[in-house]
Automatic annotation (TrEMBL):
Biological source species: Anabaenopsis elenkinii CCIBt3563
Highest taxon above the source species: Bacteria
Signal peptide: none
Keywords: Oxidoreductase
Keyword NAD: no
Protein name (record): CoB--CoM heterodisulfide reductase iron-sulfur subunit B family protein
GO molecular function: oxidoreductase activity
Length: 303
C-alpha cells in the first residue's frame, strides 16, 4: 500500500462520464481531490469500444486500447478508470498483450506496427489498468479512508451492483473474488454504511441487450432493483456508468415494463464515498439523476 501523498494516476475518464453521466466525472474529480490523489487526464485517449470493436476485429480493439495504455505508460503511471466496462476491456487487452510479449511477439509487433503508422507510441506492457474501486482499497487503504470520513453514512443501506465487466472480463482478479466479491461492501463499511446482499449484485444489468432486446433488458434491470428493495436497500451503488444508465436513467421505462413502482436511487461509487468525506451533493452532481437522491440525503441529514 502506498502513502496517499504519493498516489498519482493517468486518468481515463471514458465516454459516458463525459456525456450522459457527467456527474461521474465530477464526483471522481471531487473524491480524488478530497483524498489528495492526483489525476493526470489522458485527453488524447480514445473510446475503449465497450467490447464492440472486437465484434468486427480483435486487432482493432487491441490496437486502440494499446494506444490508450501507451499514453499512461508515457507518464509512467497506472491507468485509472471509474468505468467497469472500460476496466474490463482495457484491462483485458493489457493482460493479453503482456502475454504476447512472451508467447506471441509477432502479434504484438503487428499492433505496434499499426500504432507506428499513426505516429503513436508503442505499447510496452509496463503499467497496469486499475478501477477506482481497487485503487481506493489496495492503494489508498480502507483504514486511511475511514480516517478521512467527516460524515458517517450510518443507517444507509447500500446494495452494490458490480455488473459483469469489473469481475470477470480479465483472467486474473487480484483484488476480489469474481463470484463472491466484497470490495464494495468493505468500502461501504469503511464509511459507515451497511451493505445489502442480494442475488443480482454480480449479474448483468441488461445494458448490452438494450439496443435489440429492450423489453428483456428492462426486465433484467427491474429484477435487480426489486431484489435490492426487497432486501432493504436505500440505494444501489454501482462502479459502472453503463449499469447506472440502465438502472437509473431508464428506471421509469423499466417500471412501465414490469408494471411496478420502484423509485430506488442509484449512486455512482465515487458519489457515495465523497458524501462521507463531506463533499456537497451539488459538487457531486446528485441533482442530475433521474431517480431522485433526496431520500438518501434526508436519511443522512445532508442538505
Amino acid at each position: 500500500m502506498l502513502s496517499s501523498s504519493t498516489l498519482k494516476y493517468a486518468y481515463y475518464p471514458g465516454c459516458v462520464a463525459q456525456g450522459a453521466c457527467r456527474e461521474l466525472d465530477l464526483s471522481t474529480q471531487a473524491l480524488t481531490q478530497a483524498l489528495g490523489i492526483e489525476l493526470i487526464t489522458l485527453k488524447k485517449a480514445a473510446c475503449c469500444g465497450s467490447g464492440t470493436f472486437k465484434e468486427d476485429s480483435q486487432l482493432l480493439e487491441d490496437t486502440v486500447n494499446a494506444r490508450n495504455i501507451a499514453l499512461a505508460e508515457e507518464l509512467n503511471l497506472p491507468l485509472l478508470t471509474h468505468c467497469s466496462t472500460c476496466q474490463g476491456v482495457i484491462g483485458h487487452v493489457n493482460e493479453n498483450l503482456k502475454e504476447c510479449q512472451t508467447h506471441n511477439p509477432t502479434y504484438l509487433e503487428q499492433v505496434n506496427g499499426l500504432l507506428h503508422q499513426q505516429g503513436c507510441l508503442p505499447y510496452r506492457g509496463t503499467t497496469e489498468v486499475k478501477h477506482i474501486l481497487y485503487a481506493l482499497i489496495a492503494d489508498y487503504g480502507l483504514e486511511a479512508i475511514s480516517q478521512r470520513v467527516t460524515h458517517q453514512l450510518t443507517g444507509l443501506n447500500c446494495a452494490a451492483f458490480y455488473g459483469c465487466y469489473l469481475l470477470r472480463a480479465q483472467k486474473h482478479m487480484p483484488y476480489d473474488d469474481p463470484f463472491r466479491p466484497e470490495g464494495m461492501e468493505n468500502l461501504f463499511r469503511a464509511v459507515g454504511a451497511t451493505p445489502v446482499y442480494y442475488r443480482g449484485r454480480t449479474q448483468c444489468c441488461g445494458w448490452p441487450l438494450a439496443s435489440y432486446a429492450t423489453t428483456e433488458s428492462f426486465k433484467m434491470a427491474g429484477m435487480h432493483i426489486q431484489e435490492a428493495l426487497e432486501n432493504g436497500a436505500d440505494c444501489i451503488v454501482t462502479p459502472c456508468p453503463l449499469c447506472h444508465l440502465n438502472l437509473d436513467s431508464r428506471q421509469p421505462e423499466v417500471e412501465k415494463v414490469i408494471n411496478k413502482r420502484l423509485g430506488l436511487p442509484v449512486l455512482h461509487l465515487p458519489q457515495l464515498i465523497a458524501l462521507a468525506l463531506g463533499v456537497s451533493p451539488k459538487e457531486l452532481g446528485l441533482d442530475r439523476h433521474i431517480v431522485s437522491t433526496k431520500p438518501i440525503l434526508e436519511k443522512l441529514g445532508i442538505s
